[in-house]
Every structure is written in structure tokens, then in C-alpha cells.
Amino acid sequence: MKKSLSVLLALAVLFIFDANAQNTLIPFGSSWQYLDNGTDQGMAWISTSFNSSTWKTGSAKFGYGVEGINTQIGFGPDKSKKYVTTYFRKSISITDPASLGDFTANIRLDDGAVIYVNGVEVHRINMPTGPIAYNTLSAVSSSGDGSKTLTFQVNSAPFVSGTNVIVVEIHQSKVNTSDMAFDMELSSSLYGPDGDLVSPYVVSIERLSPSSEITEPGAVTFRTIFSEPVNGVTPDDFTAIATGSVEATVTDVSSENGTHYDATVNASGEGTLRLDLMAPDTDITDLSSNALAGDYTSGESYTLVEPVPLANALFSFNSSWKYLDNGTDQSTAWRTTSFSDAAWKTGVGKFGYGITDAATLVGYGPNAKNKYITTYFRKSLSITDVSNYTSFKVNIKMDDGVVVYVNGTEVYRNNMPTGSIAYNTLAALSSSGDGTKIQSFTISNGAFINGPNVIAVEVHQSKANTSDMAFDMELLADQSDPGPVGDVTSPMVTSINRQSPTTASIMPGSVTFRVSFSEKVTGVSVNDFVFTTTGTAGGTLTGLTAVGTDGTVYDLSANTAGEGTVRLDLKASGTEIMDASSNPIASGFTAGESYLLQTPTSGGGFATVASITPMSISTNTADKPQSKVWTYAGKFWTVLPTTDGTFLWRLDGTTWTKVLLVSSGALARADCKVVGNLAHVLLFRGNNNSYLISLEYDAAAAAYKLWSSRPTRSSFVLGPDAETATLDIDGNGRMWVAYDTPDSVNVRYSDSPYTTWSEPIVIESGIADDDICAIVALPTQNKMAVLWSNQRTDFFGMRTHTTGDSATTWSEDESPGSQTALNVGTGFSDDHMNMVLASDGTLYCAVKTSYETPGYTKLALLVRRPNGVWDNPYEITQENGTRPIVILNEAAGKLRIVYTSQENGGDILYKESSLDAISFGSPIYLIRGMYNYVSSTKATYTGETVLMATDVSTTAWKAIGFLVSDGSSTATAMANGSLLKEHGQNLRAYPNPFKGTATVNFTLPQGGAYTIVLYNSKGEQVIDAKKGLAEAGVANTLEVSAAGLPSGLYILRLETNLGTETIKLLHNR
């Protein structure tokens, strides 16, 4: 009885399964027609009658910047302004739609999609309501990079008997998106008591590896896609159809899901190769034992071409390499000849992602916004006799930076910082050209040995959210004898690059250009080159030097003058340059790198700059609109985090002194606002609770303490995914905090003592997920103002709120600077901003644009006058500069913009302008190296101020700083020895000049703490500070020792809560 019941249950389950069998109409990985040229297709393209014969054809997964792509989609010539929409079309045949039940679609996409069947919209995902245009942005940025499968039901009404057209338009959420993806599956239920009676069939046979049509003879892989899972597929089921001299054998067939079968074919000779499947000769059936429906003879084919050997090429571009793309730290062992790379993947160049010509797609990890920094490559080659070659030339394509090793020894690095290279070391610059430019260099024959050799290459990205990566390389040998017999190939210039200095923006003076040729040449002369210039710039060649002995690289030195750009070109004719076979140079060359000459402004720059002793911090000084420094009671103060917690620090001389623990956390970034003797500190902590700490200055103790009206911190959440936050206080004492979320600009407010906070108020929506905002009080206008970036509209925005009005009442958007904004690059707006307010109500805003195009503004100044009218934007820089801040000395009539030279760290520079007529001169270096994240004070300053930044040369961050002045300050006194007696402290020292030890006398008009510090003429502190307490009117005497210090000028500085005083001392050893 139990046995009979089991059989009945099994039959029942089988009947239910078959009666609702799924019929796959479009499997994942199918072939689609697609259009990726950025044109507006209107609505005609969705109809069944539309002619798409000129569209491209490819196999899903489609996309760029994601893993698992079979067909690379083009995004246009500008990676910072990619095409928004890509179109897809596919025709399927249905005999009788009435015999089919529910239609179900599974889709994998990034970011948004609209799906149509026979011209009727059936579904949309991540798209706004209303009509959809070719430039309509997706409503949200999709996560998962097209790896997630979304399922939805499709209305059966639009389907007809016969041909049905499925069309899909994929939209991106922003034009500078890093990735795009599309794949789709469509299935239906089959009803009927007789079960599944539908025979399987072949949907397509496509090229899989390599994906390009033209390839070399060898092993290739075809992918066969069936309409549903099948069994019984063997190599004998396929027939290789060849032309020319091609001979081919199917050696292996494998499948992971029963629908996709990959057949490996070994092929030799030249000609075409196609793979067919002949149904009558197979035992292929579906899961219900239905035999294959018919033959398939219209698949894609390969064209096999034997490689044309390059002269003396040991290996060429598009060669095979072992590679590792899993983000692990390989340390240094991977470079050596003994290292085993057996577990690494194998692919052929060009390698990369986010580029249109990648033959092997490299993985970058699960998070497109935090990609792996480094990809490793290894290649073995054997050289019988190294002495047959005088040197070796390498041509390399890469994006962004590269280090090359031969047999474990470094032979070349490009676009990488100096020093040791780790697996997470960022490239120094973001490379342009997506790996299309060829960089050439020479390796001496001493780097190689007879027998096996290993070339190892590590390619680094300039930032974790990079949009692309690329690598390919060829190695050429220069033989001892003259060029090969029959050589008729003319040499050419492959590059003319800046060699010394390598930076683009420089002051006029001596420079060196490096010229690389495709092969060894002779007859090179300075007379073969000319300068192409702009503005008043000019140059004179002063010398030519061959680099190495292989004759492929030459350095040309020159003197430059004036302002503008200078580029070195090779003349198109009239030269005597030729290779070893007397082939003349092929053509001129006008595509080299340029220098931008900028002359220093006479009398410009700070009067003095004194370095502040660096200190270790646990979180960098980032968050572009924030201000971390203030001055009160004659001292500078800041709030910075360490591994022990977040502290209030006081600047004593040029050293920060830890004063007060304000939070036990180590990951906060501070924005500081001073009102009277109170300092309010917003500790922004991302998605975690942010804190408000309020400090009260105790004059008697000459120190800050927690505010007596609220000695505890105020806690609130700013999110989700806020990038930064700032605070300010209106005329009624109400505190406001402004912050961004992925789609909106928000404010919250609190009234004194700032314990509880309002709910978020959205004052602007529709911004991009990496836009930011900042808030500022406008007391002369009785207003608060919020400035934001919007990379969806390409503009900056500002709204104001009148103090005393409803907290939700804000003005119309003022769109600062939009009157002259250009449709260049990805638009006017970028998420970099910093503001300072003048006493008359003029607001100065330093911003970064998204033009990202040579010859167009990179950093700009926006100026809002007290009447609410915005000036036209003022250009600060072209070509370079990031994270600008603005500082203002109204007494001196000077405005300065301080910024980092390049993304991810570089030199810290500044430019200055008078307030009367805003115009910025040449950049002035504050410090050279790998620094970033400049910050200073919200307030204007008189005399001196402090600039801070982060040393990013290692992951062990340090806060660096500078005490800068415009003359009427302590810093100036340190430089010129003038005596400041406004506080009546009567500082004296004797003997002067002194030898070894000096006696110091001073009297304070009020009692309190004091500090004595000695500096050298460079502003560097040279002895430990002497500290103590002094009574009012009582003479104080102490000794200062200069033992061990060299002879010269020194500055003695007395610091009290009343101010500072300095005197000049002369030390004679």
C-alpha cells in the first residue's frame, strides 16, 4: 500500500511539473542587435517595422566597466560624458501565443531600463514616470553592476503569432557613470495534459574566446545557446566548416547550466572557421526527451590569420600573458623567475575594463566604486644568446600607472610615485587615452640572461572608483648587425613627452623634451624640430642628447620664456632622419605633450611661511567645505582625531599641543564655528551618529572647557550616505547644519543650547549621489544660505532663508555662475566647494568645474555681492587643481585660493588676487610632494592664519600645517625681527649677540600662562618650549640655551593669552 501511494505521488508531481513547464524564448547570453552611438532614436525604433539592419550584433552580457561582459558597449569619445542610452532589439517567433501561459522576464541591468513588446511598453525599471527621451537619466544608480537578476511578469496581450520584436533601452543615472550592463531572459509557461511537447532548438552559435572575429590559428571557443536545457551534447555533434587552408577539430564540449555549451576547437591554417550543428546526427534532447528541432548553420565565424612577424619582435601586442586580478597583496615574490603563476588566469592583450578594445576583460572586484588598485601580469620568454642583441625596446600601453620588472629587477616605471610600491599604491596621475597611447623605453641587454626570462608588470589605478584600466606590451630586440634585409618600413616618432620637469604647469626656464622613435634612427638634429606655442610663450632649443645606445630615444633641452603653452613638434619634411636600412622618417609629429608657462606675480605670496610640526591623525583632513581651524585669545585651535580619540589642539609656536578630549571616536571630521567665547564643533561621522561639541573659553585658566550650558555632546544622524556636513548660526542664535544625501540637499536646525534637532528639511532634490553642499550665515542680509553642486543639471545651486521665517521657507535657486556656464565635458558643476564671507556681506566661493577639457576652467571663483547678484565666474586654473579652499585678508585686500595640484594628492599650491580687481596670477608652491585635503578657517584673518593638509604619501596619515602671514603678524616679526610691544610685555634678552646661553627678562601686565620658543631664520622651532605661570607686574627671568646650534640669526617668541612678542637674537658660537 505504501509503495502504490509513493508511485501515485511521484506521477502527480511529474504531471504538475510538465503541465507548467517553462519554455525559454530568450535565454541569458542571447544575441541582440544594438545601437551604441549616442543618437536620438525617437520612438520609431520600438516598432516591428523599424529597419535595424545597420545596427551592430553581439551576445549578452553587454556593457562596460563590469565583469562577465561578452560584448563591450561603446560610450562615446569622452569618458567623463558618456552616452546616456543604449538600444537593443531582438526578434523571436511564437507559433501560437494562446498556447503559452504567463510570460516572465529576468533582467540584469545597470542602471535603468524600459522594455517594449511589438511597440507596446510592458515594463520599466529605475526610470522616472512620463515620456522617456534618449537623454533621460535613470532615476537611481543601480547597484550590483548587472549581476543581480530582477524578475517581472510580462503582459501576454502584445504577443502575436509569428514574429515578435522585443526592444529594450538601457539608461545611465549620470553621464560620468563608471559602468553599464544588460542581459535578459524571457520565458513562458506551457499548459496542457500531455506535458512538454516543444522540441528544443539552437538559438545561436557565437564566438566566445576570443570574441574578436580576426584571430591567430590555435584554440578557439564557440558558445552554443539552446532554447532550453538539453542533454546528450558531445563534440561529435558539431561540424567545423572551414575555408582556405584551415583545418579544425572539435576537442571538447562543456556546460554549466544545460543551456549554454562551450565547444573548444583546435584550428590551423588561414581562412574562415564556422561551427554548425546537424540535428539528425545527434542524440540531443530536452528534459522531456523531445529531440532537437533542426539544424543550425548560421553561426558566427572566425577569420584565422597567421601573425605577420615584426622585425626582431620577441613578442608583439595582443600576446598571451598570465595575470592575477583578485585584489590580493602579492608583495614582491611574484616578480621573480622562481615564482609559480600556475594558478593565475591566462589571457591575451589588450587587457582592461571600461575601454572599447579590450580582448581580455580584467576583473576589478565586487564594488565598482572601490575597485582593486593593482593587476599583475607575467610573461616568460626564452633567449638563446643575449649577446646577439645590443638592447631591447619596449612599447607599452597602459592606464593609469605601471612598474616593469625583468627577472625580478625593476627596469621601468611610469606615472607612479617614487619609493617602494605596494599593492594599494595609487598611480600618481589619472592617465588619458584609455591605454591607446604608446609609451616607449629601452632595456639594456644586461637585464636578460641566456635561457628562460620572466617579464613581470604591475598596473596601478589612480583612484579606487576609476572608470577604466588598460594594459598591453610588445618587446623588440635591436640586433648587433644592421637592420633586416628587405626592411622597407619607415621609422616614426611614437611620442614627444615632457621629461624634465614632468609637470605641465611651470615657470619659464629650462625644460627637456624626450622624443621616442619606433626603431633605431640616425641623423637626428635640433634643426629637425620646431615649437608650437600660444600666448607670449616661446622656446629655443639648446641641445640634443641620445638616451642610451640603441638610438631610439633622444632628449632635447630648451630655454622657454613668456606665458602660454609650448609644444615640441617634429617637422613634416626637410630632415635627414632614417633607420639602419636608409628608410626616411615617415612623417612629422604634432601630438606631443605641452608645457604651460606661467610667470610669477611680482611681490606675490605670503610674507612668511613657517612649517608646523606634523602630527599623526587617524582620519584625514578631507570634507572640502569644512573649516577646522579658528583663532581665539591669541592662539590657533583645531579639532583632529587620533587613534586615542578626537582632541582639541592648541598651536604653541609651531607645535600642536593636545588640550582636551572631545570624543572617544577616531573617525570624525570637524567643522568649527566660533561665536564669542564659544567654539561649536560639528563632528561629522558619515552614516554613524554625528556629534555637536560646544566649548567655552575660560579666560582665568586660559583654556577651553566643555560649555556649562550643555556639557554633553548633542547627537544626531545625518544620512543616509552623507558625504559631508557643515554648520553655521543665524542672527537669532539658531544653529543650522547642511548635508547631502544621495538625491537631496538637506538642513536641520536646533535652538540654544542645541540639544534637540529638527527633522530633515529638503531644500533641493535631484542631485547626484556624489554631490555635496555647504551652509553659511549672511548676517548683513539677515539670511542663511546653502550652496550645492548638481552634476545632473551641470550647475551649482544656492537658496537662502530669511532669519525668523518658517524653517521650510527658502528662496528660489540662484544658480550661481550659470549665466556663463558652458556645455563642455560633463558640465559646470563638480562636488568641490569652499566659502568665506567678507565683512560687507560679499560671499566668495571656490569651486571646481567638470569641464575636464584642456583650455577650459578647472578651478573657479564664484562671487555673490551683498545685493544677491552673482559676478561672472573668475578663472583660477586650467588643466589642473582640485579641492580648493578660499581664505581672505580684508585688511591686506588679498584673496587666496589654496588647492592640491592633482587628484589623490600632489603639491599644495595657492594663487592670489586683490579684492579690488579679481584676477589670479601664477601658482605659488606651498609644499611639494604627496599632500591633499587643505583646510583653514571660516573667518577672515588679519596678519596671520593657519593652513592644514594631510600627508597622503602613506596610509599612516599625518596632519601638516603652515603658519602664514601677510606682514602685520608674529610670522612677519619672526622673519624681520621687528618688536611688537602693543601688550607692554617688555621682552628683553642679554647678552645680544650671545654665545651658548642668553638670559631672558619679561613682565606681564596681567597674570597667566606663558610660553617661550626659539626659532631659526627659516621659522623652524629649534629648542623645546619653556612654559610657566607669571604674576602681573612681576619681572620674570629665565635662560635660553643655544648649545649645539650654529651661528646665525634666531627669533625669540613670547606667547601669552594677551598675544605674542618677538625679538631678534644673534648667536655666535
Output the keywords.
single chain; 1069 residues; mainly beta; Jelly Rolls; Immunoglobulin-like; seven-stranded antiparallel β-sheet; signal; T9SS type A sorting domain-containing protein; Secre_tail
In short:
With 1069 residues, the chain is mostly beta strands. It is 2% helix and 47% strand.
Largest sheet: 7 strands, antiparallel
Distance between the termini: 114 Å
Question: Architecture of the domain at 22-190, according to CATH?
Answer: Sandwich
Mean pLDDT across residues: 85
The CATH topology of the domain at 22-190 corresponds to Jelly Rolls
Secondary-structure-based class equals: mainly beta
Provide the gyration radius in Å. 35 Å
* Shape summary: globular
Name of the CATH superfamily of the domain at 22-190: Galactose-binding domain-like
What is the level 1 CATH name of the domain at 22-190? Mainly Beta
- Count of helical segments? 2
Q: What is the number of E strands?
A: 76
Low-confidence stretches: 1-21, 480-486, 968-985
Fraction in helix: under 10%
The spatial strand order of the largest sheet comes to 43-69-68-67-66-65-64
Report strand %.
over 45%
Structural write-up:
- The strands form 17 sheets. The chain has a 7-stranded antiparallel beta sheet, covered by helices on one side. Strands 1, 4, 5, 7, 10 and 12 form a 6-stranded mixed beta sheet that branches. The chain has a 6-stranded antiparallel beta sheet with strand order 3-2-6-11-8-9, with no helix packed on it.
- The model is unreliable at 1-21, 480-486 and 968-985 (pLDDT under 50).
- It is globular.
- It is 2% helix and 47% strand.
- The longest helix has 18 residues, at 2-19.
- With 1069 residues, it is mainly beta.
- β57 and β58 form a beta hairpin.
- Among the domains are: 22-190, Galactose-binding domain-like (Jelly Rolls, Sandwich), CATH 2.60.120.260; 202-304, Sandwich (Immunoglobulin-like); 313-479, Jelly Rolls (Sandwich), CATH 2.60.120; 497-597; 627-713; 987-1067, Macroglobulin (MG2) domain (Immunoglobulin-like).
- The chain contains 2 helices and 76 strands.
- Keywords: Signal.
- This is T9SS type A sorting domain-containing protein.
